[in-house]
Structure of ABC transporter ATP-binding protein:
Amino acid sequence: MIIMDRAVKTFDKQKALDDLSFAVKEGCIVGIFGTNGAGKSTALKAIAGLLRLDRGDITIDGKRPGLATRGLVTYLPDTDVWYPWMKLSDAMRYMKDIYWDWDEGKAASLLDFFGLQKQAVMQDASKGTRAKMKLLLALSRQAKYLLLDEPFAGIDPFAREQIAQAIVEDFMDEGQTILVTTHEVLEVETMLDDIMFIHEGKLLLQGHVETLKQERHMSLMDLLKEAHEGARI
Ligand SMILES: Nc1ncnc2c1ncn2[C@@H]1O[C@H](COP(=O)(O)OP(=O)(O)OP(=O)(O)O)[C@@H](O)[C@H]1O
């Protein structure tokens, strides 16, 4: 279980996380929504152990983010982190050397599913192809927790839904948990169990997608719009 407890993170005078608390249980897919600058990436980076909170606490299966959780968590950043001159095969070899849970079979299936070439050079690939390469590298680990920061950015709308579906049906191991930030509400809706809506570093809405929709007789998009409107009043 991932527990974020009253997390505060300030950059200069800007509060990116403002007393943010939530818990994510095992084996579910959680969509994290919010406007630009809401604090979504900061929350994922803090869970991944890439930045330190000013206040508050995070535990992943009872452990603080850091070396102890490296094997538990895989993080797909929203930026390109690989050397541009690298071939996809170089990046795959690097991941295999670093992580004991690298799954060669899964990597081969994903290569085929995305229609990627191992010899393709990162900097020569289109934005969408780079997004697929990054997804392959993140999903080929058997880590228990997958943190995906805007995985569909750059991927065309025709492929997004298909990829979201495949992640759940074909490439997600039993008991794996996914936290995914995205602005593509409609494309990911069917893959999600739970949602969170973050605004100015605060959690404004959290719950099970279908339960929220039934209780309030609203689409997911309208639920998020309502949460956003409420924050502006
Ligand atoms: N390294 C940094 N230095 C300074 N400010 C930062 C840094 N990282 C994030 N911020 C600020 O913290 C706030 C939250 O940023 P964050 O990237 O977490 O938002 P986000 O919800 O992921 O936004 P988006 O949807 O645009 O990706 C923003 O005001 C951003 O400018």
